[in-house]
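re the bet — no i am not wrong, look at it urself. input seq straight from the record:
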Amino acid sequence: MSRPALPDDTELSDRIRTLDLESKVRLLTGATVWRLPAESRLGLSAVTMSDGPQGVRGTGEDPGATGMLAPAPSALAAAWDTALAEHLGTLFATEARRKGVDVVLGPVVNLQRTPVAGRHFEYFSEDPLLTGTLAAAVVRGLQSRGVGACLKHFVANDSETDRTRYRSRLDERTLREVYLAPFEQVLAEAEPWSVMAAYSGVDDGTESAPMTENARLLREVLKEEWGFSGPVVSDWAATRSTVASAVGGLDLVMPGPDPLWGEPLVAAVRAGEVDERLIDDKVLRLLRLARHTGQLGEPGQNPAPPAAQAGPGEMEFRLLREVAARGMVLLRNEADLLPLGPEGIRSVALIGPNAVAPYLQGGGSAFVPAVRTVSFEDGLRAALPDDVRLSVHRGGDARLRPPFLSGALLIDPETGTAGVRADHLDADGNRVGGEIRPSGDWSGYTAFGAATRRVVLRTVLTFTEPGTHRLEIGCVGRYAVTVDGEEVLAGDDDRGVELILDSTHNNPRLRGIDLEVGPQPRRIALGIDLTVVEPGGYDRFVTAQLRHAPPGPTPYEEIAEAVAAAQAADVAVVVVGTNEEVESEGWDRNGLDLPGHQNELVRKVIAANPRTIVVVNAGAPVLLPWADEAPALLWVWLPGQEAGHALADVLLGRTEPSGRLPWTLPARAEDVPVPDARPRDGIVDYSEGVHVGYRAWDRGGLVPAFPFGHGLGWTRWTYESVTLSPSPVSATLPSPAGGDGLDLTVELTNTGPQAGREVVQVYLEPPHDGPDRPVRLLAGFATVQAAPGARVTAEVHVPARAFQIWDSEAHAWRTPPGRYRLRVGRSSRDLHLTAEVTVDDGCLHPAG
C-alpha cells in the first residue's frame, strides 16, 4: 500500500496564507512547557519536545515515569565509533516514541573548552571534528525513526557561570574553525530538523548580541549560507525581546505561552517593525518540523497517534551496557593486571565513596529517572563466582551535603504516621489541598493547584542515636523555617525563572543546625512555610531539602577500615570520582581536585595491596596525583543505568575497554590552558583562539597526565604502513568532513595476545612557515578490530576542510600552500606513521 504524498513547501505556504496574523503568531511560542500549539486549519498537531541527551526525560506529565538512562555523551565519544553512536540514536528515538515525544533536545555540540565547565559531561569532546562526527551519527539514528534532533546550544555556549548573561568574545576565524565547525558538520552530514539558540551571546567583531537576536549568525550563516530550513528554537526562557529576536532569526520561543511573542509581536508586525513575511517563514519552518515528525496531516484532520510502544527490555539494556563498557578508557595496566582471571581470586574489596554511591548521570536538564540502575556492587556480585567474597567499604564520604532525611525519622504531627505533611494554602491562608510524603526531598515540588500560594511543610523528627546530629535545610524563594515554633531560618529571594536557569531550585543553599542527643531520644517539631515561586513559562514550584548527618565514624576511621580490607583481599577495586554536587548544569566547577579525602584513600589502598585497580567515575577531568602509582587505572565516565554490569564486563575481560580519551587529562591544574570560565565584565574572552584542548597543550609544550586520544585496551598494535590516494584531489569542499579530500589506507597488526579494537587516529601538521595554526589537529579516524596476530586495514578519510583556514578578510575558506604531514597513531602524542601532502594551486597532492 503506497503512502500518501507529503505536502511540499508550496502547498504548505498556501495553507499558511489561510491564517490571520494572530493565528500565525500564536504558533510561534509554546502552548506549554514542552508542547507547541496545534492548528487544525493547517492539519498541525502539537509537536512535543523533551530534554536529552543521556536519554529522553519525557514531559513530566506522569510524575512516576521512568526511562532508559544511557552513558553520558563524553562516554559515547570515548568509543570513537560512529556506528555505535548511530545505534544509540535509534534507541533514543524508540524511547521518545514510547513517551510521545517528537523532538529530543540534543545532541549538544558545544566544546569542552575548559575542564571545569559544569556541563562538560554533556559535551562530546574538546575537538570539533570528533564532536561533529559522533553528533551527526546520533542525529542520523534519531531521525531515521522519525524523531527530530534539536542541535544545541548555538553557539559558543561552552560554560555555565552567568550563562544567561555573558557574551562570548571570539574572532571570526576562531568561531568558524572551532566553535561553528561541529554545527556546520552535523548540518551537512545529518540535516537535523531543529537548532537551539543558546542563553549566552556572541561578539565576533561583526555583531555583538544575545544568540536569540544574533542576525549575523542565525540568519546569515545558519539559514542563508548553510541552508538550514528548520526552526531555530530558543533555549528555555532565553528570549528577552520581541522585535530584535523576531528579526534576528529566532523562530520558536520556549517555553510558553511567552508574553514577548504574543500580542507584542502582532503589534510589531502591524507597526511595520517586523515584516509579516518573516512570520510566514517561521510558521513554514515549524510545519517542516511537524511534517518530518509525523505531526502534519490534511487541514481539518489530525494525524493518527503513533502505535503504542512496548517498554524497554533486555535488548536495549544490552546496548547501553555495551556503550558503557566500550567507552571505558584503560589509562594504565601495569603487569597486565587487567583483565582479572578467575584463578587465585577468592576475595575482592570494593572501596570508595563512588563504589557505595555511583555517579551515573550529571545534574540538570539531562537528568533521567532511570527505569533501573545496576550499582557497581550489584554488577560485580552478579559476575563473580559464588565462592569469591566481595566486601564493600566507603572509605569516607566525598559529598559536602549530607543525605536526605530518612523516612524513618519523619512523623506527621496530625496523624502520627510516617511522613511530612504538606498543606496547600491560598492567598487568604485557607487550606485548598495537601498530601503526606515519606521524604525529606521536596525539590521542585509542583503537585498543587492553581489556587495555591503557599505550601507549609510540617513534621516531627525523632533522633535516638546519642551524639551530634547535623540537620541541614535548603529552600528557595520566600520561606521561613521553625524548630519547635521558633524561627531559625528565613529567605526573601523573589527571583522567578532565574532560580531554574542557575539550578538553584535543585541545589539550594543549605543552612545547618546542630542537635545534641543524649541517652534519651530527642523530638523536634519542624515547620517550613514556602511561598510558591512563579517562574514564567515553567511550572510553579516550591523547594525544600531536609538533610541529615547522624553521628558516625570520621573519614579517617573509614579510610583505615577500607585499607585493612584492601590488605586482606586478593584484589582491591577503588572507585573514586565526582558527584551531583560537582558536575551539573547551572554552575561550573571551582577546581579539578577530587572531592573529599579520595586522594588519601587511593594512595593508602595502593600501598596496602599491589593488585589495586583504581576506577574513576567522573564525566570531566579530575587531577590524579597518584596516577603513576596505580597498577591499573580505568576511567568509566558517568556510565548510566548499566554501570555495574559494564564495569564487571571490563574487569573480568568479557568486554575490552576500547575507549580513547576525547579530551586531555591534566597532570597539574596550573598547566590547564583555559583554567576557568568566569566572565569578566560580562565577557568570556576566547583569547586562546583556535588552540583549544590538546592543540593548546601542544602549542605550549605542556605534558598532561594522559594525552588526547590515549587508551590501552587488552592487546598491542603495530602500525605497518600508510598510503594515500594516488590522484590529486580538488580542495573545493561542499561538506566540512566529507566531499573532497584524501583517503588514507593504514595497515596494522594485532601483535598482542587477545582480540582487540583499535582507534586509528590521523593528525594533520601544517607547514611551519604559514599562518598561525595548531601544531597538529585531528583530521580523521577509524575503528578496526582484529584477532591476535591478524593484520587489518583501516580506511581513514581526511576532508579537504582539515587543510583549510578561514580568511577573515575575504570571509571565505582558503587552503594555504605548502608541505603538510599526516601523522598516524594511537593518540595525539603516540604517532607511528607519516605521510606527506603538498598543496599548490588549491589542490592536494600526495608528496613523493
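see?? The longest strand covers residues 830-840. told u. also The chain has a mean pLDDT of 94. so pay up
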